[in-house]
């Protein structure tokens, strides 16, 4: 009765030890964020993966789709995520039993001296009495299969799998972060390019007015009604407009190349054509109360939390290295001198546990544990720094959205005044009360006001893009 109880007790002890897991368990940190970001004029919103559709621009939607499919930075991030998943699978496989097959052949020789002389009689290879001793050559054939499984007594393999899973989560968040950055950069570049297209149209209109003004100035100068200095000033204004237009063309071409690369194309491949009309830069609704949970889902915060999780799990791996490892091994093989002898009687078997206990490692294990704890503290600091950076970015983006909206409203009011002045100037010119130069001047100011409003609306749209990026989508 006692002999039967001891094995059961030993098995129960092994099973209970196999449920142990060394190291601290991970608990998600509490992000130090304000409860809400308040003070904006619209209703609460949540993160959306296709936030750029709020601009209502089919061309932008198509560019975003191309970028999500062909952007090289995003493709590289997806490959890194795939590698992390493969690594997780490899770590999980390391905890499974292994089965290996072996087969071999060797041509051996037993000499006449040393241990070989003792083995010869056992193998039936000893020389006959009175015969001089000499070496013996023979063949050895072997065939077998071996198995091995490490019992995870201290949770070392479980912690390794946990860390690998956290690395996959970090890789997924990093991929989401790259996708968000690419989407925001495509939207920003596209909007800026549309803005430059509008600037080119305004520049062409301003240059046409400058040509008219210069023609009138030259005519008046020929009649002695305007000085050469005034004509020279008009010529200088026209030359400045031409130089500005050249710079606009350069900037437009540079942005077009940047946009082509972002969507996975060649730099010299045009992805959009200048619009026939001025862009509206529709501005989507802005959230009035942004809960902190929204910011906590930012890809960089999710990634930092996952990195902290992985670092915490690796502490358990380092602690488990201090404790013994038990491997269960088994071997079943055949060894024969002649293939004709291969049979059941040639079998060899070996089954049993093997224990490995670290006794002295020169302090390596303790240093490894100290390193893992240091990495965990560094990951915690990196997480807090990421949260604070997110807080600042969201505050800045919210302030920029509010300021841009106010500036766009002021620019619209100024344009209305400029148009009213132009209308009055045109009416007075028709009655003969003022000269054509006054009308041209009013038209120039109106074009400048239209350009200013376009820039303000562009700034408001770009602020919306930055807000979505700061919120994580």
From TrEMBL:
GO terms for cellular component: plasma membrane. It is found in: Cell membrane. The keyword Signal applies. Keywords: Lipoprotein, Membrane, Palmitate, Signal, Transmembrane, Transmembrane beta strand. Residues 1-23 form the signal peptide. Belongs to the outer membrane factor (OMF) (TC 1.B.17) family. One of its GO terms (molecular function) is efflux transmembrane transporter activity. This is NodT family efflux transporter outer membrane factor (OMF) lipoprotein. It is a lipid-anchor. SUPFAM superfamilies: Outer membrane efflux proteins (OEP). The keyword Transmembrane applies. It comes from the Bacteria.
